Amino acid sequence: MLVSAKEMLEKARDGHYAVGQFNINNLEWTKSILLTAEELKSPVILGVSEGAGKYMTGYKTVVGMVNGMLEELKITVPVALHLDHGSYEGALKCIEAGFSSVMFDGSHYPIDENVAKTTELVKICQQKGLSLEAEVGSIGGEEDGVIGAGEVADPQECKKIADLGVTMLAAGIGNIHGKYPENWPGLRFDALENIKALTGNMPLVLHGGTGIPEDMIKKAIDLGVAKINVNTECQLAFAAATREYIEAGKDKQGKGFDPRKLLAPGAEAIKATVKEKMELFGSVGKA
Ligand SMILES: [Zn+2]
Q: Is 84 assigned a catalytic role?
């Protein structure tokens, strides 16, 4: 059964490790992540962007697939199904469809509108026992004139949103989605410390987990990050393994064109990536 991310993240915060959110795109992705979490006895959060939800034909399909897999694969570790960077309407749709967790990303709204919409969703999620992630807008990476520095959130705005009663909070600390540019100066631990000081016990979320050096990940966890989002890295691993299979001409040998064979190396590569991240985040054996 799907669970809210609240308990697993509070345990992670108290135990000084982080739970990985791994985004899913299809059956192979979901199966690879769930099997790895079960094998490593790690809690896990399955992330679904609105685009990925649409790709999988809708949120109800996603809920059906994930619930079916939890049962058929006899998954015993805590699993949350979470909307990633949701709109207000998207969050409502996911709640209706049976997600156990949603993110409302109001970071592009003025702070008052972000507060108003987040407040509405806090009410709904608390009633239904779902976890809610909110995001605070940036005060810009442009303040120091460095392009590609990533965004940094205003600690006071973080406190405003955290105090609404959300479960976890995403706040920019110089992190970036996708691949990091060569001139990226690294995570802003000063910003993280300021945010932590004002938001207290709130589990913090680090987006853009692909390509952040390991020592920075560990330090971020020490400073209060309890959830780390990984998306691009699984995609890169899947693509590289699939390319290798095709370039080796394996799809032309025997029944190598069978999708179950063709997609197998990519699925294995996702498993390896998820394992590596769970070990790095310290969530192995915590389920
Ligand atoms: Zn994100």
A: yes
CA of 54 from ligand 1 middle (Å) equals 17
Ligand 1 centroid distance, CA of 203 (Å): 15
Q: How many CB atoms lie within 10 A of CB 97?
A: 17
How far away, in angstroms, is 251 Cα from ligand 1 center? 35
pTM: 0.95
pLDDT in tens, 182-220: 888 899 999 999 999 999 999 999 998 888 999 999 999
Walk me through the domains of the chain, giving residue ranges and CATH numbers: 6-231 (3.20.20.70)
Catalytic residue among 14, 84, 112, 222: 84
